[in-house]
Amino acid sequence: MIRADYHIHTEDSYDSRLKAVDLVTIAKKLSYDIIAITEHLDLLPQELGYFGAPSLFRYLKRLDNLIAANPDLLILKGIEIGDYQCHSDFAYRLVEQFDFDIILGSVHFLKDHTNLAIPIKRKMDKAALTEYYLSNLELVENCKIDVLAHLGVYKRFYSAFPDEKHCVPIIRDIFRTIIDREIALELNYACFRKVYQSVIPEPFYIDLYLQMGGRLFTLASDAHQEDHLHDHYDDLPVDLLKRLKISDRKSRVLEYI
Ligand SMILES: [Zn+2]
Ligand SMILES: [Zn+2]
Question: CB of 36 within 8 A of CB of 78?
Fold first, then answer.
């Protein structure tokens, strides 16, 4: 069974306490086949002002040194572009200058600046949910990404599955688009560390994606510190894990065989 993690934050992410060298040691100890380091690239004005952005040149140099020192582990050079759809031309011109192996696209914010990755202050009414999923659709339609990250992230601090039935047609459009564009669907299990006890997207959405012909996946701890790594890996759907193999495509995501 595959051991892989395509979404990990280390020292160039403002909110991470994990050192890449420690990550590599742990990944080897746990016999991981593949890991991707994916620092944040958050370019919205309200984020840049507080957290800044990493020097991509320095970051990739650090990863090149790490990869050279650890030939026995497959380490991918990645980036998680937050709200890519809000600044797609600028972000694309920025990242295309570098040789990233894997680019994650995520939606973190609503237009009113509500951050959906932390406990949410406003009520997520029907309109907010529609806006959230439409932003994800815009992301997968317009941005050059390898992976759609943490679809449904707003649920992390929910104690039960919310009513989002009215968004299912949009979610179907998202799946159709990622299948057409060969974008992998990320299975993010960070929710188990928060409140919502499920992988996102949830198993019934994973089934829908498979029924529609989706075959590309990644697995994601979304780790920001040492004890996040591998935590709840065993809660991933085991039948699915058994059928995932590293694809020989450029971004080396997982393929359902
Ligand atoms: Zn994220
Ligand atoms: Zn992340």
Answer: yes
